[in-house]
Amino acid sequence: MRKADIKYTMERPGKAAKSAAYELACAAAERKYTALITASEAVITQTKAIAAANERDMARARAKGLSAALMDRLLLDEGRIRAMACGLRAVAEQADPVGQVMAEWDRPTGLRIRRVRTPLGVIGVIFESRPNVTADAGALCLKSGNAVILRGGSESFHSCAAIHACLVQGLKSAGLPEAAIQLVPTRDRAAVGEMLQMADFMDVIVPRGGKTLVGRVQAEARVPVFAHLEGICHVYIDASADAAKTRAVVMNAKTRRPGICGAAECLLIHRAVADGLGAQVIADLQAAGVEVRGDAGLAHLPGVVPATSGDWGREYLDMIIAARVVDDIEGAIAHIRRHGSGHTECILAEDAAAVQRFFARVDSAILMHNASTQFADGGEFGMGAEIGIATGRLHARGPVGAAQLTSFKYLVCGDGTTRAQA
User: Fold this and answer.
1) Domain 233-375 has CATH 3.40.309.10
2) Are 343 and 362 in contact (CB under 8 A)?
3) Which of the listed residues 52, 165, 168, 264 has the most CB atoms within 10 Å of its CB?
4) Measured between alpha carbons, how far is 110 from 322 in angstroms, rounded to an integer?
5) pLDDT per residue over 62-83, tens digit each?
6) Are 11-226+400-412 and 233-375 the same fold in CATH?
């Protein structure tokens, strides 16, 4: 598509979204609720149509030779479609964040000041592979009073379109503007570049994908970015770790769904338990089909593949995990600081002092204690869904739900109140 055509293709939804955002900002909570409930029901009703659209995408992905992990991210079976509908309903049932009073106080001058939540405006979401992000992002933006323009990956084009149709059905039922949730209608990669330059129409960009996508968005975007970086999640096994808990958590963290950002990618093992519990955990992973790439401290264990420098700080999104022996908790913390992406880390320990030290000294967005990193998910945090896991330190951090998609303004009330002369 010619550059002029792409610009026109993207300007139209940009203008429409800007207009829709003004209406959404003051839309009654009941109307947003109706839209989301209707969309949830539509997803259930259209299960076969969504599955058929997904199969078109899966067939194309198979022909392109996508990895098993990426195929898993793309797949929408009946259970995942049902979960998507439940996510829409869960977001609908949450309290509406718009207008919520975050704080209020009185001043000696007689002023009454309130800080209240307000929408951001128009949000652009660029994502790869996982078509369910269409529903999650659309629902959360609507709930928070924001218009959204969604650009899914080319591999999920048909799946995203089928899901988007259900969201539009919800908007229509509530009398809300259809432009509140829009889907970029082309696979052309130039649309992403154009999106990143739309400062006149967008207030924030949320990239959800691999390092290449996020890096490009951060480098080229003319609007603020909520970065969703790689999920290089570490699990540290402390000397005080409970064997049963550790074996269960590590197995779940790596193998439940290895292709998601909350999957464990690196195992750090205290030297005191490396040949005992550590060896057992590695054997468990290998028995489940996981390739373990270990350092010199684990080289003597059967089946361990020698790790290279490229294995540290790597997001595999596959049945592969890096593993390293560390002298103590300080060694684990140092490794995470050097190689982590700021997403999610876990400590397996019974020593409260060790847990406290880990929580205080590791500065990732999410820290777990004796719990699988696969809980790094907005739904599991009670947010219904999430638009991504923000790994930056400004505005939103961790799972980005409806409340995190708001800013705030101050409402200041007086009674003919004037300020004293200087």
Assistant:
1) yes
2) no
3) 264
4) 61
5) 999 988 878 988 999 999 999 9
6) no
